Structures are given as C-alpha cells and as structure tokens.
Sequence to fold (304 residues):
Amino acid sequence: MNTAVDNKFPGKDVSLDDLENRLPLVAKKSPDHKTTFTCGGVEIGGNLIPILAGPNLAETEDMILECAKAMKKAGAHFLRAGCFKPLTFPYRSPKFYETRENGLKWLKLAGEAAGLPVVTEVMHIEKIGIVAEHADMLQIGTRNMQNYPLLTEVGKTGMPVMLKRGYGCSLRDWLMAAEYIALEHDTLGQEQKILLCERGVVSNHTHRATSRFLLDLQVVPAAQELTHLPVMTDPSHATFWQPWVKSMMLASIAAGADALMLEVHPNPPEAAVDPLQCSSFEQFEDMMNAMRPVAAAIGRTIDA
Ligand code: PEP
Ligand code: MN
Fold:
C-alpha cells in the first residue's frame, strides 16, 4: 500500500499512473525494494547513516583542510563544501564570494588528506567536467532541481548525485527530476546512484524571522513509500538557525533518513556564507554523540 492516488490525469500528487508511466525507473517495485550504492567506499542506503559535513564554502586552502581533519575526527563520512555557489545576489566582496576552481582544488586535496570522499555543488553545464574531476558526488542545489538540461548532463557522467528538493516543489516534482538522472544512469547500463535530499521548503510559518524554510520531515517516509532511492535531510539549510539543527538531526534519524548533511565551520560567526546556521566543531561532535543512540534505537548506525 502506498499513498499514490488512483488518477490517470497528472496532478500535484503522485498517481499510480505516474508510478507506472512517468517514474518507471525511480518507482519502488515492491515494499522492500531499496537501492544501495557506494560512493568513495561508503555505502549509501544501507544500515549505515552516512554524515556529510563541512562548511558552506571552501573559503581557503587551510580552512578546508582544517575542516576536513575535524570532520574525519568527529566521524563524518563525507566532506561537503561549496565552491560554485548559488548566491542570492550578484555582488561579490571580500566577505561574500565563491572560490570556484581554486576551491575545488583545495577541497579535493583536503578530502584526500583526511581520507574523506567529497561532495560539492555543480551549477553550470560547462563546469561539470572540472567539478566531476574534483568530487566523488555531485550536488544539485535546490534552485536547480528543475534545471532539466543540467540534470541530464550530470546524469551522463554516471557519478553519484545528491538531488536537493526544490524549496517550492512537491514530492512529485522531486521524483520526476530524479527520473531525469535515473534515465541517464539507466542508459549507461548502471545502477541508479541518486540520493534525494530534503533541505527545507517554503512555508508561511517558519518560527523565526530569519528562518526562510521549514524542514519537511514527513517527506522522508512519504518519499520512501514511493521510491527505492535513499532519502536524506539537511537540517542546517532547512532551519537556517543552528540551535535547532541538533534536534532536527535526531528527528531525521528517527524519521528514517538514510543520510544527513550539516554545515560546520571552524568559527561560525565568521562564516563567509550562512553564519547563523552553521555549527562549530564542538557542536558537531556533540551531535555525533547524540545521534549514535538514536540510530541504534532503530537498528541503524552512524559508525562505518
Ligand atoms: C548548500 O548545500 O550549500 C546549498 C546551497 O544548499 P541549497 O541548494 O539547499 O540551498
Ligand atoms: Mn550552504
């Protein structure tokens, strides 16, 4: 039993007709149908709940190396950082910037030095090649979830993809976007390496003036009911407020999330991007310790 509606006309929710005819690759075929794949030696979609942690922006070579070592020490499984950033306004300054190709170089070196696979965002079709050379997983940001030519070209690399949910998009839109990538993986004759990431949706009520989004925890079981792909959450971007991140990490595990992402910075008030949402190294370690028993309570683990 799932919640797909029995409606042959396309609507806002997923229909049985969608599952059969528009989502043939990402739709679950039986109740225990679940995809697992490995990325950088880490299994995703299995018993382990991988933690993807790191700063919003790979700010400098030293900074990302310091982060990588701290993430590894605290038990993270992936190093995440942005280099090409979808920044909300076009003006750049010493305090608000991207590090682009330089950031990619620093990020790859830092990941190698710490022994962590790397996840970073790709925004431009013409940069897919260079981003792919420096990353183990490609991230599609919320703002590009429905950039279909980008999805197709990223899919053609055959690399693992983290597909963030568009902050105004339905579960149906999200699964259809995943199907674009799945189609390319299928054409390559390989398994689907797609990790769906809920990162907060637009809502009237977000409980704090600076919080732009609301974590849609309910979409975790809802998505898992319809797709075999692993589903994760990103409480940092969803809450936009660090004091709420820990409880939403724990709640995500309880809700069945297959992975978690969070933003960590050596000195959060000084973070170049999104300082209100990022956690310190100490806060991250504390969260890792709090997550262990919650994962154990549902028969999963955060320890590789
Ligand atoms: C990010 O992960 O740094 C990011 C920009 O996320 P989102 O696309 O969810 O805003
Ligand atoms: Mn960010």
User: Anything to note?
Assistant: The chain has a mean pLDDT of 97. The domain at 16-24+43-87+94-297 is CATH 3.20.20.70 (TIM Barrel).
